[in-house]
Amino acid sequence: MILLTIERERLLKFLNELKRETELIVPVQRLGGVTFEQIEDIDEVNLLEGNPLSSPKQFFFPQTDQLFQLRKGAFTFKEKLKRKKRILFGIRPCDLAALEFCDRFFSREHGGYEDIYYWIRRRNTFLVGINCLKAEENCFCFLCGSGPFARRGYDLQLTPLEDFYLVEVGSSPGDKLVSSYSHYFSAASPGDRREKETLEERTKKEFSHKIDLQKVTNKLSKDGFSGAVIKNEFWEEIGDRCLDCGGCNYVCPTCTCFSILDKTDRNIEVGERMRIWDSCNFSGFTRMASGANPGANKRDRIKRRVFCKLLFSQENQGLPGCVGCGRCLKVCYGEIDILRIAGEIQAK
After folding, report:
1. Strands (E), 81-175
2. Handedness of CA 43, 49, 54, 59 (dihedral sign)
3. CA proximity to 330, closest of 107, 52, 17
4. Nearest to 280 by CA among 310, 251, 246
5. How far is residue 284 CA from its own chain's centroid?
6. C-alpha angle 211/216/221, rounded to 5°?
7. Among positive and negative, which fits the CA dihedral 277, 283, 284, 290?
8. Can you tell me whether residue 93 is helix, strand or coil?
9. What is the model's pTM?
10. Which helix (H) or strand (E) holds 321?
11. At residue 117, what are phi and psi to the nearest 5 degrees?
């Protein structure tokens, strides 16, 4: 692996040069917190705060996505696919792990079908990650094996050191980029690598959550959704605390549920097909045209979501559906986020 360094003051100059040549998406401070946005002013970059509440998933699998347009008569279809190159900068390790999960879900190998809308965006996006030197209150990435330092999934990965960043090159596009802008970078020393390793070990010790997620997954596997190990009364009590808001789904970087909506103009001459995010916690998610609904019971919906995140995703995609980003802890007023439920299951 190629290891380089870049001085902190030169990093913004580097990003500013990139911005002039391609679309640049970075964490920025807005009213209410940090979010990912395309910027015009390089001074808006914010790397000091924690992970934004909205994940980078939105740039590959948008909350509202027009798939194609159609016209009555000839029934001509026009796909809406954006192929523009862009750079997504400042992604935390948990979100890199979440993108790896989404890559598998939307791939032919693991999902059975390659989603062209996802992959055209994904293949045209260059990823620059940044390792975490602080365990935030709600973070538990260490328990999920997705942080606080990234192992893969990036083109370039930054680690903040004393007055510069250690830069790890993780792909051939990453190698090509640093070669094209070599005047910004210097070779890293063995001491820089050791300092990174020391920082990683120190950060791991900051995590306060001590749940063994593998034991929880084993319990779910043994139960097999039958209620033999984890009784239905447990899920009833969890369901009673759920407010049906869908917040946990909408902030989760690995949730991939969606619905399809067809819209037309007033004269029904021009239409469009939209893909919109949906929530498996909503009572209408599994409702069929006949009115039958296998997910009408809130208990079953909550149960399915937890099984999906901690067991089914592992079986189908080979990765856990939870990366420990902690976003669901921030938004769940019923206090039934994945970590709390896992802790209650482990205690049984």
Report:
1. 86-91, 125-130, 156-160, 164-169
2. positive
3. 52
4. 246
5. 25
6. 170
7. positive
8. helix
9. 0.92
10. none
11. -65, -40
Cβ-based burial of 92 (10 A; exposed 0-12, middle 13-18, buried ≥19): buried
Q: How far apart are CA 224 and CA 216, in angstroms?
A: 12
Q: If DSSP codes are grouped into helix, strand and coil, which group holds residue 334?
A: coil
Q: Could you tell me the sign of the dihedral formed by the alpha carbons of 217, 222, 224, 228, in that order?
A: negative
CA proximity to 251, closest of 25, 58, 94: 58
Q: How far apart are the C-alpha atoms of 191 and 118, rounded to whole Å?
A: 40
What residue type is 45 in one-letter code? V
d(CA 225, CA 232): 10
Domain residue ranges of the chain, discontinuous segments joined by +: 3-204, 213-347
Partners of residue 34 on adjacent β-strands: 29
The burial class, CB within 10 Å (0-12 / 13-18 / 19+), for 198 is exposed
Distance of CA 150 to the CA centre of its chain: 14
Measured in whole angstroms, the distance separating CA 340 from the mean position of its chain's CA atoms is: 20
Q: How far is residue 244 from each of residues 20, 55, 91, 276, measured CA to CA in Å?
A: 44, 21, 29, 18
Distance between CA atoms of 312 and 321, rounded to whole angstroms?
8
Of all helices (H) and strands (E), which one includes residue 76?
strand 76-79
Low-confidence ranges of the chain (pLDDT < 70): 49, 74-80, 111
Residue 216 and residue 347: Cα distance in Å, rounded? 9
pLDDT of residue 1: 75
Rounded Cα distance, 14 and 261, in Å? 42
pLDDT confidence of residue 74: 64
Sheet holding 156-160: strands in order across?
33-38, 23-30, 86-91, 125-130, 156-160, 164-169, 3-7, 186-187
Report the alpha-carbon distance of residue 213 to residue 236 in Å, rounded: 22
What pLDDT, on a 0 to 100 scale, did the predictor assign at position 162? 86
